[in-house]
Amino acid sequence: MTTAGDGDDKRNDDNEQDTERTEDTANGGGDTADDDTDTAEDEDTETSVHADYETTEIQVVGPNGTERGSVTAALADTPALRYLGLSDTDDLPTDRGMLFVYDSVADRTFVMRDMDFGIDIIYADAEGTITDIHHAPAPEPDEDGETQRYPGRGQYVLEVGLEWTVERGVREGDVLEFDLEASE
């Protein structure tokens, strides 16, 4: 997903004005081994999605401490990675996501620039408390996604597959738990 706004950042940060796109470092699927088994292909797809990114494990926890879901999230923690986001990704397995990391809480707007699939956009404050959730469908074939804008306020923004939050009962007030120090 992409952010838009003052800086037209894929994930918009009002304090950053990113204008360049990085090379294709976030392409879903990647190279696959010449193996006829579905298991080998599934494993290769699972491990190759954003293989060049650092990652962190994220658990979504409800107010009573119940885990609602978890994903391995690629970290988009630089202006270039935030701008690129999931745009060059072919698909996103249900156990994967992307976490956009900013220095502080701010109003942000994400757009669906060059997206091939729909996503849920989860905004969270400095403590990881979810402040807003958007369900963003893929742009139509004749659209580039620039007009699909999803505003929110947060320091962290997690993107997962469309309806991931609905299927797991994730809602505002739940908490994203992760450790950026332990990222790979």
* Annotated CATH homologous superfamily: Protein of unknown function DUF192
C-alpha Rg (nearest Å): 16 Å
Average predicted confidence as pLDDT: 79
What is the global morphology? globular
Q: In CATH terms, what is the fold-level topology?
A: Jelly Rolls
CATH architecture label name: Sandwich
**Amino- and carboxy-terminal Cα gap:** 22 Å
**Class from secondary-structure proportions:** mainly beta
Protein described:
- With 184 residues, this protein is mainly β.
- The chain has one domain (2-177): Protein of unknown function DUF192 (Jelly Rolls, Sandwich), CATH 2.60.120.
- Helices cover 12% and strands 35% of the residues.
- It is built from three helices and eight strands.
- Strands 1, 2, 3, 4, 5, 6, 7 and 8 form an eight-stranded mixed β-sheet that branches.
- Mean pLDDT is 79; it is low at 1-47.
Keywords:
mainly beta, 184 residues, eight-stranded mixed sheet, DUF192 domain-containing protein, DUF192, disordered N terminus, Jelly Rolls
What's this entry about, in short?
Residues 32-46 have a biased composition (Acidic residues). The chain is mostly beta strands.
Record the SSE blueprint:
Elements: E1 2-3, H1 38-48, E2 55-61, E3 67-76, H2 79-84, E4 96-111, E5 119-124, E6 130-136, E7 149-161, H3 164-168, E8 175-177
Parallel strand pairs: 3-4
Antiparallel strand pairs: 1-4, 2-3, 2-8, 4-7, 5-6, 5-7
